[in-house]
Structures are given as C-alpha cells and as structure tokens.
Amino acid sequence: xxxxxxxxxxxxxxxxxxxxxxxxxxxxxxxxxxxxxxxxxxxxxxxxxxxxxxxxxxxxxxxxxxxxxxxxxxxxxxxxxxxxxxxxxxxxxxxxxxxxxxxxxxxxxxxxxxxxxxxxxxxxxxxxxxxxxxxxxxxxxx
Length: 142
Ligand code: CMX
Ligand code: CO
Prior knowledge:
Glyas_Bleomycin-R_OHBP_Dase, eight-stranded mixed sheet, alpha+beta, binds carboxymethyldethia coenzyme *A
C-alpha cells in the first residue's frame, strides 16, 4: 500500500526562519511554496530525494491562524513533527481499505495537497498517536 515516505510535516511559528535553518543546516532546497487555505497553512516543500512514483520531502508548516490544525498543535505542543505522509498509488482506494479496517478517516475523499497532489488524513489516535497523511502524486510526478 505505501510506496515511500512522501514527506514529514513540521509545525513552526516562522516559515522563513525555519526554511533558512533547514537550508543552511542540511543543505536542502525549497522546491515549492504554497498557501493552502483549506488546510489553514502557509507551507514549503524541501526536496530530499526522488524515487519511483514521486519524491520525498520535508514539509514546513506555518499556521494561517490559531484556529487551524497546525495553529492548535503549536499552542498545545509547540514546534515539532506534526505528521508523516506516505505515498500511495490511489488515495481513494487506500481510504476505502484503511477505513474498512476501522481507522477513523479525517477526510472521506481526497483534498488538494502540495504540488498538485491528492491528500487525505487518518486520525492520530487510531494510528498510535501519529497524524498520518496519504499522498497520491499527480501524473506528471509519477
Ligand atoms: N499528531 C498527533 N496527535 C495529535 C495531533 C498531531 N498532529 N494533533 C492532535 N493530536 C491529538 C491531540 O493531542 C489530542 O489528544 P488528547 O485528547 O490525548 O489530548 C487528540 O489528537 C485530539 O486533538 P484535538 O486538539 O482535540 O483536536 P484538533 O481539533 O486539534 O484536531 C486533528 C486534531 C488531527 C483531527 C486535526 O488537526 C486534523 O483534522 N488534521 C488534519 C488536517 C491537517 O493537519 N492539516 C494541516 C497539514 C496540511 C498538509 O500536510 O498539507
Ligand atoms: Co503534509
């Protein structure tokens, strides 16, 4: 079902500051920046590697406001790893299969994610405390 780790999402207060930190410390490069109103984030993707079916990245996330998933996370836990995203060939199918195994789905159908991907989230309480994202890369990245 999982083809790779697509990205690790990291919650931060100041996106530009964290981008600069990752660039100078790990020599990573930003390949995409986006504001995703639906998810309540301003974000940047830093490229790690390319693989079959898509790349892998660090996703830096700054909340658009306090009443957003990342805003609430920062208030409660502070900066740090927010979620892990796995690459799947077909998000809709993966949701059906995983939902059928009793895991609560935070999205019943795929939503718009970074760089044209389709994404959906699974409830962290049903996945050992890890907020889990499923990512289907767009055709051109495949
Ligand atoms: N990782 C692990 N556990 C988490 C969590 C996270 N990121 N966020 C919340 N939780 C835990 C909370 O600690 C809480 O546990 P306790 O009851 O033991 O305290 C429980 O889950 C419920 O959390 P909450 O604060 O009451 O609920 P929220 O209203 O904050 O909702 C969640 C949590 C996961 C349902 C919500 O954040 C969500 O729907 N997330 C999916 C969307 C998202 O995160 N988008 C931003 C990223 C976009 C992208 O990657 O592109
Ligand atoms: Co993500």
